[in-house]
Amino acid sequence: MTTLLTTHDISRIVAARGLPEVLRRLVAAIEADFRRWPEFDKSARVASHSANGVIELMPIADAAQYSFKYVNGHPGNTALGLSTVMAFGVLADVATGRPEMLSELTLTTAMRTAATSVMAAKLLARPGARTMALIGNGAQSEFQALAFHHLLGIRELRLFDTDPAATAKLLRHLRGVPGLQVQGCASIADAVRGADIVTTVTADKCNATIITPDMVEPGMHINGVGGDCPGKTELHPGVLLAASVFVEYEPQSRIEGDLQQMPADFAVTELWRVLTGLAAGRTWAGEVTVFDSVGFALEDFSALRLMRDMAHELGLGTPLALIPALADPKDLFAALVPAGTQLRAA
Ligand SMILES: NC(=O)c1ccc[n+]([C@@H]2O[C@H](COP(=O)([O-])OP(=O)(O)OC[C@H]3O[C@@H](n4cnc5c(N)ncnc54)[C@H](O)[C@@H]3O)[C@@H](O)[C@H]2O)c1
User: Fold this and answer.
1) pTM score > 0.90 for this model?
2) pLDDT below 70 — which residues of the chain?
3) Which residue ranges make up each domain of the chain?
4) What's CA 246's distance to the chain center, in Å?
5) Lesser CB count within 10 Å: N end or C end of the chain?
6) Bridge-partner residues for 232, per DSSP?
């Protein structure tokens, strides 16, 4: 049987282990898989674009396991009462092709995206970073805020969103988190001024300029999460020009990241090379660093395997008759028409 993990299973895992521990294990799992980067069969995701958004398939495999994620990005969805980003995915056995697990990935994507942001910031932000601006206060924002607080030591968050209700929601969720000071700001520039780290996680189907060169201060680390699709960016090209830019998987980031605005020979560094010591991360205190995040299939592969293991530890998950169980694998017909029953005439 294939195991089904629902949104309820994921929230039970978080209730049992605590969000900081789940995020910590996600960072460790993603880091471990990025360190063995050459072992993976990688490709840029397959995107189906339409007027309102995109639907994407994200496959990846190593010698033992294969995974894919289905994910959409529809910035106008919230006005219709739907999430901007919704996802599910499959983990399968490479040797036989058997789908081992079918899982929700909407909650899991928010956690793995925040974990990947932390993984990058550990390599790229100035040590001792304490203040973060968080621009875009929608569905992903709590996950980013709490991951940076618990795992990187951010103590002060400065928030801005064009929708004051989104900022009010984020303030409500973060109120009372010990050791975390949070304040809403009047503008992006106001939020960004003096921040060690700037996280942009907005959703708009356009070349937005959330961060402009005049806002960037020496030593800042910019975690650009929302620019992740052709024609959908957040950083002014001048911000990238003045920074050292780091990406997940370069062939995909050139198409989808803020990087899409730059010439094809604009230099970037893949994160796995920094993790494995093949390339430098931040080299001096005044350097401006950008993680041009778009979301790569390997992060979902790592997250699916971790959620499978945590569900197993807690006895969660439901057997799902996704593939027919056959006494004789050559007798598929028996699963459709059990022995002793007759096909009805039309
Ligand atoms: N890089 C990744 O791995 C990854 C993963 C998940 C989501 N994303 C992207 O992150 C973004 C946010 O996703 P979400 O699920 O939080 O979406 P959401 O729709 O729930 O929230 C987006 C927020 O951005 C705000 N916003 C839009 N334009 C703005 C602007 N100019 N200034 C300030 N705020 C603005 C909106 O008001 C909204 O509150 C999306 O673009 C999504 O595609 C990236």
Assistant:
1) yes
2) 345-346
3) 2-107+298-326, 113-296
4) 15
5) C
6) 229
2-107+298-326 carries CATH number 3.30.1780.10: yes
Nearest alpha-carbon partner for 206 in 233, 244, 237: 233
Q: In what order do the strands lie in the sheet with 2-5?
A: 46-49, 54-61, 65-73, 87-93, 99-104, 2-5, 318-320
Task: Tell me if 106 CB under 6 Å of ligand 1.
Answer: no
How many C-beta atoms lie closer than 10 Å to residue 314's C-beta? Answer: 14
How many C-beta atoms lie closer than 10 Å to residue 303's C-beta?
Answer: 29
Output b/e per residue, 253-289; b: 16+ Cβ within 10 A: bbebbbbbbbeeeeebbbbbebbeeeeebbeeeebbb
Q: How far is the CA of 136 from the centre of ligand 1 (A)?
A: 6
The pLDDT assigned to 119 comes to 98
* Residue 45 exposed, middle or buried by CB count within 10 Å (0-12, 13-18, 19+): buried
What are the DSSP calls for 122-158, one per residue?
Answer: HHHSPTT--EEEEE--STTHHHHHHHHHHHH---EEE
Q: What pLDDT, in 10s, does the model give residues 291-309?
A: 999 999 999 999 999 999 9
Q: Is the CB of 204 inside a 6 Å radius of any atom of ligand 1?
A: yes
d(CA 207, CA 58): 24
User: Is 140 a pocket residue for ligand 1 (Cβ < 6 Å)?
Assistant: yes
- CA 278 – ligand 1 centroid, Å: 32
pLDDT at 175: 95
Place domain 113-296 in its CATH homologous superfamily: NAD(P)-binding Rossmann-like Domain (3.40.50.720)
Contact 252, 294 (CB under 8 A): yes
Q: Which of 33, 161, 196, 228 is catalytic?
A: 228
Instruction: Work out the number of other CB atoms within 10 angstroms of the CB of residue 90.
Output: 19
